[in-house]
Amino acid sequence: MQKNQLFVGTFVHSKSLNQLEYLHDAAIAVDKSGKIVAIELQFYDQKQAAEILYAKLGWDDGDVQVRACEEGQFYFPGFIDTHIHAPQYPNAGIFGSSTLLDWLNKYTFPMEASLAKLPRARRVYGQVVRRTLSHGTTAAAYYATIDVAATNLLADLCLAAGQRAFVGRVCMDRLAPDYYADEGGPDAVLARTRETIDHMRRIDPTGDIVAPILTPRFAPACSDGTMEALGRLARSDDLRVQTHISENVGEIALVRELFPDAADYASVYDGFGLLTPRTVLAHAVHLTEAEAALIHRRGAKVAHCPCSNSALTSGECRVRWLLDRGVGVGLGTDVSGGYAPSVLEAARLACLVSRHLAMPYNAQGDGRRAPADIDDEERARATLSVEEVLHLATRGGAAVLGLEHKVGGFEVGMEWDAQLIGLNMVANDEHDDGNADGTGSVEKSSGGGVGGVGADEGNVDIFGWEKWDERIAKWVYNGDDRNTKMVWVKGRLVHQRPSSTSS
Ligand code: GUN
Ligand code: FE
Q: What InterPro entries does this protein map onto (predicted)?
């Protein structure tokens, strides 16, 4: 059983889509169940304030673990990866010049098939969970493989490591290679899926940490019977659904060929009851107005995967356009379509991809507008800010996974899913408290001597003169897992970066 915990220092989280809130000299009390029970501001006299707080909460002094953050550190909500393929992790970075459909056949299906060997699955899945936790991912929507035992193993490993995970056995009973196909028809596909659902309900009856998610790989890979059965199950058991949509133009052409009677790609899923408020649609790069409107009506959400969409040359998801149409958006790493298991990387790439959308002419310089259907008004608003991508990485992702009342921000009643971020603090020998350039105040200047420049502390140097929003921008554009010092899920410490590492 965890102790009651008191976190003290600077807390940063999303207040709204384009605004971060900074709580300095604050304290957050987290009870034994991992819930935030109090947030105290202006916590200057730590000892006195703690006494008052403990009295209010009925906490016994000796039963509280206090953690104060150091200069240059702050608490941030855990990241939410709304789309990641655990079995593809060994392929991260391997895609050559392939695009979606040849990439699947050349790299992806052979790798996924190889994880039917459980010792191999254990090794790979163990690495994915450890690695994503080390990057601050406190919740993830995972695709596993078609294999029941390996899918159950992924759920076991997430639960043991304490990472919130929605784990889906991949359904693919059409156009699959013979060495990696979900055999036996829709009844068998459904039965295998039920086995994994039953397993997850057994190991985590509350579904708090690990829960199932129905996973028809994508429309071209699923028979009508399978999609119909999954749609029925989603409705009867109120289950989450994840799939891919409109990622690549070849894929869209294939869907048109396979479903000639459907109005469009989104309507294929809708026809099988697979577009629900609990559906996560990955990519959504090439949607039409009608599809965006349908997705909005059904309340389904989008996992934006800028790393993957760039690596596989799929295209640029129009995030602002989706948000303008009321479609919820979160970030996904889409390992290994995406090469990086880091949501921070996804956030910075979301910034860059949005800037590509904002540029009037494509990089080839042939004068062609790219994409062709974006008008000047949309282009002018396309750029996403640091604040916005951090919102997508936390509260946006939480909403995509139906966790918005539980995680994604620091509020009383929410759970403590958080990361302690440390940026290098360059010693400030001048003790120059007055901001000579008048750019505004940083609450506490370095006392000097703190730091570790030269140690494996990451790429982010802060000099003490930055405003907090500038520090956060430096973290988003230069940061990595070296800055992720500690990670908690539901109050439990699930990752701690070794304090001194030799490289
Ligand atoms: N579409 C169908 N399967 C996949 C997959 O594994 N990754 C990506 N990015 N797209 C897909
Ligand atoms: Fe994917």
A: Amidohydro-rel, Metal-dep_hydrolase_composite, Metal_Hydrolase, Metallo-dep_hydrolases
**Can you tell me the mean pLDDT for 29-55?**
89
Residue type, 90: P
Q: In testing the pocket of ligand 1, which one of 95, 101, 247 has its CB within 8 Å of the most ligand atoms? A: 247
Say whether pTM exceeds 0.90: yes
Torsion sign, CA atoms 281, 287, 289, 290: negative
List all residues whose CB is within 6 A of at least one atom of ligand 1: 85, 100, 104, 108, 217-218, 244, 247, 308, 334, 337
Q: Convert the pLDDT of each residue in 45-101 to its tens digit.
A: 778 888 888 999 999 988 899 999 998 999 999 999 999 999 999 999 999 999 999
pLDDT at 442: 40
Length of the chain: 503
Please identify, by atom number, the ligand 1 atom nearest to the C-alpha of residue 251: 1
Q: How far is the CA of 195 from the centre of ligand 1 (A)?
A: 23
Q: Is the ipTM of this complex over 0.95?
A: yes
Q: Give the contacts of 76 (CB within 8 A, at least 6 positions apart).
A: 11, 12, 13, 136, 394, 418, 419, 421
